[in-house]
Amino acid sequence: MQDVVDLKLGARWRAVQEPRVRLDVFVVVLVACAVASAVLASWLPLQVSIVTVFLFAGPHNWFELRYFLMRLPVRFGRSRNFFITAFTGLGFLTLTYISLPLLYRTASLTEETWLTIVAGWNTLLLFWLALLTRLRSRQKRLSDWSWTVPVALTLAALNWLRPDLFSLAIVYIHPLVAFWFLDRHLQRTRPDWLRAYRRCLLLLPLLLGAMVWQLSRTAQLPDDNGLFWRITQHSGAELLPQVSSHLLVSVHLFLEMLHYAVWIVALPLIGASVKFWDVKKVPLARHPKGFPKLIAAMLIVAIAIVVALWLGFSTDYATTRDVYFTIAIAHVLAEAPFLLRML
Amino acid sequence: MKPILSICCLILLSQATIANADVRAPQRLQSGKVVLRTNLDVVPEANGSQARLQISQSDLQALRAALDGSPGTPAVAAGFSPSPGRTIVAGMMLFLAISFTGVLLARSRRGRTQKTVAGLVLIAAVVGAATVITRGNAGPPPGYWSWRHLSKNLAESQPTSGSLAIEVVPDDPNKPSRIKLVIPVEQKKTTGE
Lengths: 343, 193
Hints:
The complex is a heterodimer of chains A (343) and B (193).
Chain A: H1 2-16, H2 23-43, H3 45-71, H4 80-106, H5 111-139, H6 148-161, H7 163-189, H8 194-201, H9 203-215, H10 226-234, H11 245-269, H12 283-286, H13 292-315, H14 317-327, H15 329-342
Helix pairs in contact in A: 2-3, 2-9, 2-11, 3-11, 3-13, 3-15, 4-5, 4-15, 5-6, 5-7, 5-15, 6-7, 7-8, 7-11, 7-15, 9-11, 13-14
Chain B: H1 2-19, E1 33-42, H2 57-68, H3 84-107, H4 112-134, H5 144-147, H6 150-155, E2 160-168
Antiparallel strand pairs in B: 1-2
């Protein structure tokens, strides 16, 4: 039933929303964003990283929140178990993730104990994802997603061998999830654009290959101050000392910039968040049994958090960056159930 | 016939990883216990009067901690060798993954040949992946590629950066104590002509 509702919603979007741009403009914007991001990320990785996170980290979270609210049904119906599992796991995993740095600072843990804790958290994440996939597959009776169980177990095994690298893999894979969202959204709202979009995606490995070719032999980036050190560590410079930190930071920044571009530019451009300031456009607020005040309050509080984030970055960039990337795990996790709902 | 050939190729490939693992490993002069992994910049200094070794305060503290036998900072050399406990858990997960796959294949409606092919391909892939991961250090060591162009860079007065493993070697009573920097170099092929 929920799929039917989704299909109806997609059809309504197709019918009601006029394309804000033509396909050729959309493609040009995508390609220009990708090339410009690759050039900037390769040229001045540390400086551009600082500016990019400052400007776009908070706003992209706001756009994500709004997008997720748009996708949230007024009544869960048959999806009740799915959403309960999603929100319970989201809350639990976020709280435990945030408590990890506090635990590291307060308790004197050995290196092995710390890695075991990280591996345990990663395993819980994988099991949560597998459970959500299982619940979702029950709703889609024509699809057989049983293969995801052995895949999750294999990933869990690899995680226990190198939990630190597994965590780093999440850092690099998460930005790519935005492309999946865009793909699913186009399939629902602009199916005739999908082919062109997927062809544009072929540019991604080409740009990444060019960056690796150009930057793999470059000298390590200076990490002699706390901020630069944080940025290189975030990209995995300490875990992969044999790889140039310039390459690591550039590739990570490139993916992050594309991630922000999808949420802030691409999705609003194709009408996913048309009139994003208008709360009435959110089904959860527009519905007679909806919660307009709650939705409006949530979006206003989210704007306040974005402004607070900018103030924090202005006063103490390094600390705010640390805090942001710890708390931001919530949006990384939240993407999983909403993406599953779109599959 | 083709599936069987494909399986044989996959199994041979996974074995080749093991067989070739030591081909390019550089010859070591003397091996010691690795106590710290960090990065090294070799920087030519124009008009310099003496060679200088600069080490950061944090690296020095980590080195001291490692020499004292204390855990040191977790970020240093984190997880280079999986512990027995984590390896056991990983093995259990892998066992469960293969078991689930087996059950799924057995319950699937495909033909027997396809099931066999899929099962063997999966096993070959898992064994191959595990081999690559567990024997990951048997190939060129970290930093090998970074140091390949050291001599060329030095000739052009350009800096070179790469990873560095600090090893503690036992004292030799017959030789004076000195610090040695061992750099992997690219061996030039000799044609014999």
